[in-house]
Amino acid sequence: METRFVPDHLALSVVAGSRAYGLETEDSDVDRRGVFVAPTPLFWRLAKPPTHVEGPLPEQFSWEVERFCGLALEANPTVLECLWSPIVEHAAPAGEDLLAIRRAFLSRRAHQTFTGYTDAQFRRLDPGRPKWKQAMHMIRLLLSGLHLVRHGEPLVRMDDHRDRLLAVRRGEISWSEVQRWRAELTACFDGTSALPAQPDRQRVEDYLATVRKAAL
């Protein structure tokens, strides 16, 4: 069973989603995201370990460390935010080391990934019957990404924006105002960036090599 990799080889587990953002309601689930390290000898077989595992807890999703690092180097918004979650439930030595090098994954590619993902999601929303929760999270992602390009780390906790974001979720803000907010945030991504042009791939490679050796 693939679920044996979690928790047996779990390196890092964080709370993501609304509870990490400070946008939870009474009905909010606990979303967990994590990283596991498959034993190195398993890669010597024709059948490789899974790149990700769902479960075993509800709303839990974990990536194998190499897959996670690859996505982070590509500036995947969901993966990058995991590295800055304020709620770390478990961190083995490999997880602690991963958090220690989290800035090595950052690059200006985040300008495109954060805005591109939100643009694609907004295009799928029907202005006549918008999914307000999804709209809220897309605005939240733009706020997170803008903080990343300006200050060098994503904004996970949304305390300063909580009231307005929750108003979007409740449908108390018009669709046109949501679109204006979106346009304003997107335009700000064209300014000066605090991010390096390229990620520090060598540092990530060194980390992976160390993890693989430790998992022999």
Describe the secondary structure blueprint for this structure.
Blueprint (H helix, E strand, L loop, with lengths): L4 H4 L1 E7 H5 L9 E6 L15 E3 L5 E5 H9 L3 H6 L5 E4 L1 H8 L8 H15 L8 H20 L10 H8 L5 H14 L12 H14 L2
Helix pairs in contact: 6-7, 7-8, 7-9
Structure report:
By secondary structure, the protein is of the alpha+beta class. The chain folds into two domains: 2-106 and 200-214, Beta Polymerase, domain 2 (2-Layer Sandwich); 109-188, no CATH class. It contains ten helices and five strands, in the order αβαβββααβαααααα. A five-stranded mixed beta sheet has the order 3-4-2-1-5. A hairpin with a 5-residue loop joins strand 3 (52-54) and strand 4 (60-64). Helix 7 (132-151) runs parallel beside helix 9 (175-188). It is globular. It starts with a helix and ends with a helix. The mean pLDDT is 96.
